[in-house]
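Researcher: Here's the sequence for the chain we discussed earlier.
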Amino acid sequence: MPAPEPADPGTTREWPGASNALGSEPSAYLRQHAHNPVHWRPFGDEAFAFAAARDVPVFLSIGYAACHWCHVMAHESFEDQDTADYLNAHFVAVKVDREERPDVDSIYMAATQAISGEGGWPMSVFLTPEGLAFHAGTYFPPTPQPGRPSFRQVLEAVHEAWLERRDAVEQNARGLASGMADAQLAAAVSLDGPPEILDRSLLSEAVRVLARLEDPDGGGFGGAPKFPPSAVLEFLIRHAAVQSDTSDAARDMAGRTLAAMARSALCDQLDGGFARYSVTADWSVPHFEKMLYDNAQLLRAYVHWVRLRGDWVMPAGEAALVASRVADWMLDSLGLGDPAAPEGLASSLDADTVVDGVHHEGASYLWTPESLEAVLGPGDGAAAARLMSVGASGTVSAFGSPLHPGRQLTGSESRLWNRVRPALRVARSARTQPARDDKVVAGWNGLAIAALAEAGAVLDRPELIAAAESVAAYLVRVHWRPASGSSGSGSSAQVLIRVSHDGVARGISGLLEDYAFCAEGFLALYAVTGHRRWYRFAEELIRGACARFVVDGTLSDSVGESAQVFNAQGQHPGLDPFDNAAPSGAAAFAGVLLSYAAYSGSHEHRAMASNILSLLPPIAGRAPRVAGWLLATAQAAVAGPVEAAVSGPAGPIQRELHRALLASPSPGMVVAVQSGEAGEEAADDGAVPETRAVEPNVPLLEARTAAADGSPQVYLCRGMVCDLPLRSVEELGPRLEAMTEAAG
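Model: Thanks. This is the structure I predict for it:
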């Protein structure tokens, strides 16, 4: 190592701006680090300009509030004064909440995987002052471990390379950025031109590949660690609804995974809600953070399994119970304000619980035989321990094991569990609870709106629909803001802001995924309620997304949010077609465009969806696990999707027809219902600006009249071409089933 420099350019004396600058940040994750001795700065031009002025690299640390290993590295390294002193002296340290800045996370995750062969959080990336990555990893321990250097060793090696081999460092950084540019160009999709023709055989091939990847005993795909395959489940359920030579295989894979997760430690057996992932292949040891995006997607998957109307591997009644508990957990644990009328839904619950000042992973959720007996008494306590796989040796820590049966309960076991569960819930609620990250992310709330609305309709729980409308109104009121520099007059001057804190939106504009997830949520809410304001707002989001993210006919995930990100991806717009924890923005946008085309009759938007689906052929048969939502959208496109219009006056008959349509598993079906109540549209109390009772009808409903005697009827259509209308559920069921089967 070279001799120490004669002056320390990282000290506060030499650089007056050098101090921890996170104290005023709204992000819970950034505020967790506000008292570190590390001189953290938020991601932005100022931090990179400071690095350029000092002629030092940027150390970029990316994580999120609920992340267990982020807490571990913070305690071991970022709270250590000696480590902080070295970091401050030789780097500019930048903290990023990946949930607020997925654009930053995405490109530097790709760089980390290219450099180190691994990815995850906390992510540790070393950048030039221009934002180009040249070294990266994930968690680094405080002392060396087999195959992994200590964090201090990494810092020293990077500092030495920066001083002694700068040309090579910068050349490697430029080469990596060039490689990122090539990847962006390879994933580029043009939305101009005629629609691509979808080869429906890709869908069956994807099912066959998934069958080879399935863990038939444990459920899910691959080995440990194992994540909920939410988008893949949506594809499998849609594929199972259409008769083909692979529909039974799709149905059984979906059922096995849904059943295994529901009966496992991944699912909170007391309060509902799913943990982020399992560190074991049998789902028995979860990683305990609970994320809104996971639970919103899984709620929808279980509701859609109920809609499939078959018990097979997982009884529909059991799936309905799981879905109800997930919905209740989302509102009770993540709902901001009144859970019945939430002002948005919070992002997550922490993986850790702080006990006596120390972070313990999952401590709130763990039990020992003794703690069960202390609540339930010796007899029931011992029986509950046997039933819920709680042994003398804790599977997670000294705090014990998570509750899970690992199998379907018998009748007597269910009665026992239903009897003791309330007492255990009360006892657990008295424990110290994990922290909640209260930021509201627009896109994730959009996912939740769709899930709550459909759950309310299928499970006959109107209070869930009311909650979905409350969340939707919050997004419109808080996140739909005038564009910078505009007067705010007219929807074209509005933009969707990604994040809000305490009812105030701030930070970057929404990314493609935010616009797509929110539009998906509003279209689902319209289908369930018939309230046209939600359709109109979805339409505004789709128009906004087309104007913002389609440049010269090419789709991108974000637009000009950061010069450093643009540099890191080789100065080319980026598009990631692969699903991660949530569907990719491109896949979600394709689904929204397809649904909107079905409602509006727009050939332009249908063609755009088809062109995004052109991403499928290279990956459907090779990596279907990361293309679940593209596959689900393709399944809907193959099915039409069916367009259902309910005409005629409101009342019991119309509600019965509407309910039957919402209970159908027809892939991607869109449902429009004639509301007709002028008062209903006027009773919006300002949730959507400039909404009026006289607004035009949804195009799918135009010219779809009531029967000659004035009674309601249903038109079933594809491409706005409709069959003869149907007037009863008895007629509707067989015809809808025949149309769905005809799509196979």
